[in-house]
Design goal:
By secondary structure, the protein is mainly β. About 5% of the residues lie in helices and about 30% in strands. It has one helix and four strands. β3 and β4 form a beta hairpin. It starts with 12 loop residues before the first strand and ends with a helix. Bound molecules: zinc ion (ZN). Zinc ion binds near residues 29, 65, 66 and 68.
């Protein structure tokens, strides 16, 4: 499980790295609404497979099959300024 996960009781985070499409964690459908809230933060880290990243992007969407909201999470390299990892806790309020 990624340390960059943000969630409350009703909105799960889905890891989207390297996937052409993400799936609804509830019904497994790939049909989704357009991304609405998008939050991007500079955070340096290394994925489980050894891939380095310096940016984490969370994109909020909704399953078109069952209506479940979720947050698709992406790790990339963008060479932008970074924030302290503690500030990740503030991301949820921007996505809510
Ligand atoms: Zn669904």
């Amino acid at each position: 499980m990624s340390e960059n996960k943000v969630e409350n009781n009703s909105v799960p985070t889905v890891e989207a790295d390297g996937k052409p499409r993400t799936r609804c964690p509830k019904c497994l459908s790939i049909r989704r609404d357009k991304y609405n809230r998008v939050v991007k933060r500079g955070i340096i880290g290394v994925l489980a497979d050894g891939t380095e990243y310096d940016t984490v992007t969370w994109r909020r969407t909704k399953c078109l099959s069952c209506g479940q909201c979720r947050i698709d999470m992406f790790h990339t390299i963008e060479n932008k300024p970074t924030i302290p990892r503690e500030d990740i806790n503030k991301v949820w309020s921007d996505l809510a």
